[in-house]
Amino acid sequence: MSIHIEAGETLKRFSLEGRVALVTGAGSGLGERMAHVLAAAGARVVCAARRVERVEAVAEAIRAAGGKAMACRMDVGDKASIGAALDAVEARFGSPAHILVNNAGGTDPTAFHQMTEAQWTSLLDVNLSGPFYVTQAVAQRLIAAEQGGAIINIASILGHLAYPNFINYGTTKGALIHMTRYMALDLLPYGIRVNAIAPGYFPSEMTNPFYESEAGKKEIANLPAKRLGRLEELDGPLLLLASEASSFMNGSIVTVDYGHSIRLS
């Protein structure tokens, strides 16, 4: 049996032409980069965050580069805010979001015995309840429109591993990983795939103060790659899970950490 693949045929499966992609926490860091990457692949991108001035700037930069984008305010812990944002998306693009990247999140490192109730509940709200509420709202609209979609949850290797003083962050990311599997199972009949990316150590607005400290520099020196990940090293996994190139992937957790999480020490 001979196999013949037309030139460019494989790359076409990574195209997002005609799709609407929503990225939460798109005002900086990973979310900002992901919004640009999805737009470059042909998607009409919705940049969402609580700080609307930040996502307005990101959307404008995407449009200046020739892409299609809009900005909207969204608080992932507020169902009314989520509904209003999704209404705005459909009014602007005439379609529900086909691709959702649940990137909004936070961290607040504190030892378990010193953690306050507010520190615990605030991360539960943004890191776990937020993706639950946004995914549910997006999925309900896709099901009503009889359209499939791709949901991508941004987890962390700290959802697999334990690290001192990160019990609230690690617990929420571990729960997000398992919630990804449950979402995938329940939405499977509707053609809505749910997968997750679990990044290792990457620079971000949240983590840079630690990485720039002496303790952070020692941690980086002990990594397998001896450096942080580069944001562009998440582009491939993102495009894979967002596109038809991953049409048979559902409930998968893609770890991107250069082997950090598989070694013993």
From TrEMBL:
<keyword id="KW-0560">Oxidoreductase</keyword>
<dbReference type="Pfam" id="PF00106">
    <property type="entry name" value="adh_short"/>
</dbReference>
<comment type="similarity">
    <text>Belongs to the short-chain dehydrogenases/reductases (SDR) family.</text>
</comment>
<dbReference type="InterPro" id="IPR036291">
    <property type="entry name" value="NAD(P)-bd_dom_sf"/>
</dbReference>
<protein>
    <submittedName>
        <fullName>Short chain dehydrogenase/reductase family oxidoreductase</fullName>
    </submittedName>
</protein>
<dbReference type="InterPro" id="IPR002347">
    <property type="entry name" value="SDR_fam"/>
</dbReference>
<dbReference type="GO" id="GO:0016616">
    <property type="term" value="F:oxidoreductase activity, acting on the CH-OH group of donors, NAD or NADP as acceptor"/>
</dbReference>
